[in-house]
Amino acid sequence: MNIVDQLLEIAYQHSFQVQPGFFLEHFGNRILRNEFVSETAIGEIEKSTVKLGGGQFLYETAKDFGYNYAARIPLPKANSILKDEYFKSLINFFETTYGRCSGYEIDWKNKKVKIKFKNFIVCRKNGIGIISIATFAGLLAFMFEDKTLEGIQTSCEGRGDAECVAVFGLFEDIKQNTPLKFSNIEPVSINPKYAILNRAIPTPADYGLELLTRAGVVKYQSSTFDVLGERFFPLEISFIPQLEKKLIENGIDTRKAIYTPTYNTFQNFAENNVKAKFPSNQNHLDVLCKLFSAFGWGYLQHLDNKITVRGFPWTELAVNGNPPTYFLASVDGFLSGLTGKQITTKLIQADTGTGSYSLVLLPEQKG
């Protein structure tokens, strides 16, 4: 059974469209687009942001993101007669790539939820868990129609516990465990451009997950996408630019919070994991284009040392209309790790006039 079939079987409430450059979730006539991100990079971003005093901003961004993600699907409300079945399907969806659920309890009347996970993304590595918990708190706040519903991890694998245990409820009921809260969530309607500019365009099959799976580059089992020893997971494209915008607005240095940890992660990944898998004489830009296309960043090609990206993820949240810092840092780090040189990538063109978001990038050796 291939990766797509496994995902469809597990998350039966969703329809997935996976092809080189694109990972789309279909909900009736709605689509949401995902990109595959590095667990290590997101964990290091979370850690760096907390050190810079931005823990509250992480929580606000993730809870707002979770709430609006639920609204876009939309998830059913707690008063639905099918609420238990829908919640089970939500857990099934999380189990596709985020972790394995070992049990949950719901008190619909008193707005209390307890969930146990094993091998849950990000927090299993850094023991922080703000992004994961706040995102789920946002989903539940939408279902319970109460934005004051918050969340906290009472135990975490990343802190040495046997499993991750998350508790959600009204702040007054859990405040002894968490200093973080946020209820000023603004529902966001989807810009019509989102569906137009993020629709899949024709792309060749040799740049996709299936080919990389057959080549042994990508493995999927037990809720985990493993890419040459690094775990990746799908994330809806709004989160990263939303976080970047929030941090800038609140005076957090995004080079320290996002660029540096992402650059370092991908430099290490390329140097220590990727180099050994690909022939030493293979063009480093060719390796980048194949992997990053498979990660859902659009269809990447290279010519004369320039990288063109057709169908790059589009969101109106992008800071100054630029690609997210995470993306540019991951490209810089990846190429630096492969070449052994310090590479920085310059955006020389961005265009939506072709019906999709297209970029032209120029990698340059620094110094």
SSE inventory with pairings:
Elements: H1 3-10, E1 15-19, E2 22-27, E3 30-38, H2 39-51, H3 55-72, H4 83-97, E4 100-107, E5 112-118, H5 123-126, H6 130-144, E6 149-155, E7 164-170, H7 171-174, H8 192-197, H9 209-214, E8 218-221, E9 224-227, E10 230-236, H10 239-249, H11 254-274, H12 284-294, E11 299-303, E12 306-310, H13 325-339, E13 343-351, E14 358-365
Antiparallel strand pairs: 1-2, 2-3, 3-10, 4-5, 5-7, 6-7, 8-9, 9-10, 11-12, 12-14, 13-14
Can you put this structure into words, describing what you see?
This protein has 367 residues and is an alpha+beta fold. It is 40% helix and 25% strand. It is built from 13 helices and 14 strands. The strands form 3 sheets. Strands 1-2-3-10-9-8 form a 6-stranded antiparallel sheet. It has a 4-stranded antiparallel sheet with strand order 4-5-7-6. Strands 11-12-14-13 form a 4-stranded antiparallel sheet. α3 packs antiparallel against α10. The termini are far apart. About 3% of the residues have low confidence.
Largest sheet: 6 strands, antiparallel
Order of the strands making up the biggest sheet: 1-2-3-10-9-8
What are the segments in which pLDDT stays under 50 over at least 5 consecutive residues? Answer: 4-13
Helix content: 40-55%
Query: DSSP strand (E) fraction?
Result: 15-25%
The pLDDT mean sits at: 90
Radius of gyration: 20 Å
3D shape: globular
- Quaternary structure: single chain
Termini distance? 48 Å
